Prior knowledge:
Blueprint: E1 6-16, E2 22-29, E3 32-33, E4 38-42, H1 49-56, E5 64-69, E6 72-73, H2 79-83, E7 86-89, H3 101-106, H4 110-113, H5 121-133, H6 149-162, E8 167-171, H7 179-196, E9 199-203, H8 207-213, E10 216-221, E11 224-229, H9 231-236, H10 239-244, E12 249-252, E13 257-260, E14 266-271, H11 274-287, E15 289-292, E16 299-303, E17 309-313, E18 316-320, H12 323-331
Parallel strand pairs: 4-9, 4-10, 7-8, 8-9, 14-15, 14-16
Antiparallel strand pairs: 1-2, 1-3, 1-5, 5-6, 10-11, 12-13, 16-17, 17-18
Helix pairs in contact: 5-6
Amino acid sequence: MRSASLHTSDLSIGYKLSHGAVNLLHQHINLQLYPGEVICLLGPNGSGKSTLIRTLAGFQKPLAGKVFFGNDDLSMITPAQLARRVSVVLTGQVEIANTNVFSMVAYGRTPFTGFMGRLQPEDRAIVHQALEQTGIKNLTNRKFDELSDGEKQKVMIAKSLAQQTPLIFLDEPTAFLDFPARVEILKLLRQAARSAGKAILLSTHDLTLAIRFADSIWMMGKEKPIATGTPEDMVLNGEFGNYFDNPQVTFDRFSGTFTFEAEKIGKVAVAGSGLHRIWLEKALERKGYHVVQETKSDCHISISENQHFVVDFINKKWIAEDISEVLDILKNLDLSSKTKD
């Protein structure tokens, strides 16, 4: 049986306010984080994701209950010991002047060298490896405060890797990155978890990438208990919808994405198959058209063998070479008055 790198026991999180009042966000939390796993923490703004990470990292005290690193009570671990067991990347940007990227990443070795300690050859090799892993070797000698937000975020992730802790917590680590860079970072974190047996917890708003990369998901909601499970099980059991759905947005369990109800401007029937049909239907729905069966619309679009689109409306036909041209044709048709119930 696997031993958890971290587990909580009847944990309560939140803030103590003035005059002895308490802002309780969640209580009776019992979670486990295992070596070799990437856990994605999801939830709407204000649901307590950052508070949970800060509490698990020892940056703020629980309102009640316990956090354990292995068998050790977090409250009994000294700061020096903690720095060798968990590295943390928070959302807020760090601003340090006159420090180059190598030195920033090298701060990750401080728990082993001391703040004024000298880097040994082994430490330098670890820093260079972290720079290589995060794809920022070319930034080694650049000033940290001259980097873009995305580059700074990669530096902080490299620093956490250089710290070589069994636990890594990251609060929105891909917030400032473009999509290819987000994929790159999540692949890197998953590889670090699997190859080095690290337990990694990261919060994110990117549901699509969480479903793709997470071993498990912790779902947080306002005034709801924390739900956990594999991404696929949480899709099938409706948990994503329970935590995110509202009158404007709905989670589609077939596509694994969120959809929104647009005002319908007409009905269109589509015939054909393959990628061209899939993306044509997506474009029509995005524009507000209702894709229906052929008998329920006077407007039909078929896909020819040469992948052209044939628009047929009340015995008039147009040939379109691409979806943009289809949408231009539809704009000139009065579908709102020429549809069947």
